[in-house]
């Protein structure tokens, strides 16, 4: 019963098989291989647009490189105050931008609101030498609270950002889970809504280690080949990244993996909502569930071997009652590899039936 993270799941067999197949014989080095070229071609088809694509092995590299390309050292990146780039990447965005400032914005359930964004941008007037200059907006889809921006919400926020001269970045570590949950087209959740550069995640959804930095205007990607190399993220055997991405995308494999993960989360959330004393903090929208458990339930689940993370109650919005002394706030994440039997056992224990 491992619900700690979708990072704890292995890779899909189809992607592992593709890596083995790519291992046969030589291939051009440093991303000049046919697999990487095919990955870019498939991503262009998925997003219905010619793109510039740069494959890397980690989500942190993807986010940091993307922001480094669109934000100068004296710039500001506006993001949610609990976003992954703000709290979980050890200063990588600041390092890859050579010193840009991340400016956190509060918002309900992990989402930035239009009024808050506009007010924050206004607090950083252009030309004020004593302040960093507005450069980028970064949105997480799904958010760190497991919630989703609708395509309309992304479009509205991007319009505010573009109106202030900012570029728009999307951290799409769980892009597939968000996409199948809404549902909508990849283009509608990205460049058609105003996203300029996307960190397109595959690792959490079945890849071994593969992410893509996607520029929807290839002209804006001119610095990326050098930044990726300088940062140590240009793999000499880049074919193994390309092979992963090709297998991930072909025949809609990525969407099937995400649908499976989300379906397990639906069942888990339904079961927990019916468990005595359990409170669901934010609506489940993709493959993450945030819940407050009675401590006795938490104890019983852990005694049975269940794995999940306790979460910080400082993330609560106004109006949500924090955990009491006898309660625990937790995050549960499902993946393509989650077993239905584990979900049912977890639910049965939470409901006091096992």
TrEMBL record:
It is an enzyme of class 4 (lyase). It holds the Pfam family Beta_elim_lyase. Belongs to the threonine aldolase family. Its cofactor is pyridoxal 5'-phosphate. One of its GO terms (molecular function) is lyase activity. It comes from Methylocapsa polymorpha. It catalyses: L-threonine = acetaldehyde + glycine; L-allo-threonine = acetaldehyde + glycine. Homotetramer. PANTHER family: L-THREONINE ALDOLASE-RELATED, LOW SPECIFICITY L-THREONINE ALDOLASE. This is L-threonine aldolase. Residues 2-289 form the Aromatic amino acid beta-eliminating lyase/threonine aldolase domain. Catalyzes the cleavage of L-allo-threonine and L-threonine to glycine and acetaldehyde. Keywords: Lyase, Pyridoxal phosphate. Its EC number is 4.1.2.48.
């Amino acid at each position: 019963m491992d619900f700690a993270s979708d990072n704890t799941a292995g890779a899909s067999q189809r992607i592992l098989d593709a890596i083995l197949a790519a291992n046969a014989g030589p291939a051009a080095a440093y991303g000049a291989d046919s697999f990487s070229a095919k990955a870019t071609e498939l991503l262009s088809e998925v997003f219905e647009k010619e793109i510039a694509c740069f494959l890397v092995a980690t989500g942190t590299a993807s986010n940091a490189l993307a922001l480094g390309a669109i934000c100068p050292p004296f710039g500001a990146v506006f993001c949610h105050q609990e976003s992954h780039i703000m709290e979980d990447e050890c200063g990588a965005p600041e390092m890859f931008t050579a010193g840009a400032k991340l400016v956190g914005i509060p918002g309900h359930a992990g989402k930035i609101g239009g009024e808050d964004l506009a007010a924050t941008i206004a607090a950083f007037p252009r030309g004020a030498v004593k302040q960093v200059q507005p450069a980028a907006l970064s949105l997480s889809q799904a958010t760190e609270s497991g919630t989703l921006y609708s395509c309309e919400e992304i479009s509205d926020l991007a319009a505010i950002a573009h109106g202030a001269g900012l570029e728009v970045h999307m951290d799409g570590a769980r892009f597939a889970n968000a996409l199948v949950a809404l549902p909508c087209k990849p283009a509608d959740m990205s460049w058609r809504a105003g996203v300029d550069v996307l960190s397109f995640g595959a690792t959490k959804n079945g890849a071994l280690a593969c992410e893509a930095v996607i520029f929807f205007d290839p002209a804006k990607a001119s610095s990326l080949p050098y930044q990726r190399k300088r940062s140590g993220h240009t793999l000499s055997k880049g074919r193994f990244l390309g092979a992963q991405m090709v297998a991930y995308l072909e025949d809609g494999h990525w969407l099937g993996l995400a649908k499976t993960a989300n379906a397990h989360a639906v069942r888990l959330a339904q079961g927990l909502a019916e468990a005595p004393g359990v409170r669901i903090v934010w609506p489940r929208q993709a493959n993450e569930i945030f819940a407050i458990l009675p401590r006795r339930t938490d104890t019983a689940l852990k005694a049975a071997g269940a794995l999940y993370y306790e979460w910080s109650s400082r993330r609560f919005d106004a109006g949500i009652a924090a955990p009491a002394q006898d309660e625990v706030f937790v995050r549960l994440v499902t993946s393509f590899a989650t077993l239905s039997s584990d979900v049912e056992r977890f639910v049965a224990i939470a409901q006091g039936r096992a």
